[in-house]
Amino acid sequence: xxxxxxxxxxxxxxxxxxxxxxxxxxxxxxxxxxxxxxxxxxxxxxxxxxxxxxxxxxxxxxxxxxxxxxxxxxxxxxxxxxxxxxxxxxxxxxxxxxxxxxxxxxxxxxxxxxxxxxxxxxxxxxxxxxxxxxxxxxxxxxxxxxxxxxxxxxxxxxxxxxxxxxxxxxxxxxxxxxxxxxxxxxxxxxxxxxxxxxxxxxxxxxxxxxxxxxxxxxxxxxxxxxxxxxxxxxxxxxxxxxxxxxxxxxxxxxxxxxxxxxxxxxxxxxxxxxxxxxxxxxxxxxxxxxxxxxxxxxxxxxxxxxxxxxxxxxxxxxxxxxxxxxxxxxxxxxxxxxxxxxxxxxxxxxxxxxxxxxxxxxxxxxxxxxxxxxxxxxxxxxxxxxxxxxxxxxxxxxxxxxxxxxxxxxxxxxxxxxxxxxxxxxxxxxxxxxxxxxxxxxxxxxxxxxxxxxxxxxxxxxxxxxxxxxxx
Length: 472
Hints:
- By secondary structure, this protein is an alpha+beta fold.
- The protein is built from ten helices and 16 strands.
- It has three domains: 45-149, 2-Layer Sandwich (Dodecin subunit-like), CATH 3.30.1660; 154-330, Rossmann fold (3-Layer(aba) Sandwich); 335-429, FlgT, C-terminal domain (Thrombin, subunit H, Beta Barrel).
């Protein structure tokens, strides 16, 4: 009986021990999966900057108050109003303190609390009493002062999109007229959006919205934490200012009365032309300027009175002008360059609206640099036509494609030595090859209807002129 009890106890003991053991793999923490979350946008942050300052006063408290005030102005001089610093940040707390109290940790904690965290880790380096050389107290302190650190984007070229000036108050656009101020606003917005999307510029907004004013007033009034005051007066100044003068922007209607009937023969044509420039803010020097223009397809004369789609023509002209402007800006500041190449497959340094999917661009190989023999200034590098870039995919910061019509070998050329130039017009063979897949309709399918060439069909206008045998 005793033997059975002992055997049962041993079995129970082994059972409990076996159940208490955990598998080896369970003792290891599971590997954390990589985070797929997007990074937090960099909008700048409140940080601290160490400052050493000296203050003088008729009492130890006054000297300490002056030292703290000078530390604040040293770090955030443009932010603070000199006459209100002491009251706004509670620096008067030092006036009734003696030298021993001012050196204590309790006083440093009170200053941090009263200043709203603007003054942190206050340390009294020295507190000298009046003597032979000076009749006033002298306080020397070290402290961490709250300071706003702007985002990394502020290291980029800072650009202000300036005015777009028109000579006419209204613009003819087919059968309607539009206010030039509306077109100017649309052009400025397109240029601003496109420059932001390049990732190469910090575009500054000079239009103070009521919401922004209210937020700044909230900080200045003291309703926000005191450290938030470091955000005031942080508006950055521009490096470059862009502006444009539009010489023409119209799609005009032309009518001629027929002699044999009461009908009019009506046609439409027009385009846009402008001059644009970038001015260096510091030196007022025009860093780059150019004249840009483009003609819209002309509608053939007709007596049908179909008219044109004015808003659509306007949108297309605005889009063309905006892309041409941004392309010119990029070409003068950050030329589009091949950054990687695998055979004829390449990656280039611009995306967004700088390049267009499916478009073809000229590519040049950069050669030696030349200098002016009189001034010694650089005249630029030689450019040799190399090939053509066919863009296949565009992302926000990069574009992908392949090189076509390569002249010579690319093996001896450095990757960064290939730069992209202007967009090339499509040849007749390229248009035909692109339209070929559409011509192969399934058996039994109805033949596509002919597109009537009027100004209502903007896509039809963009196509080359039909052959003489075609009837429109």
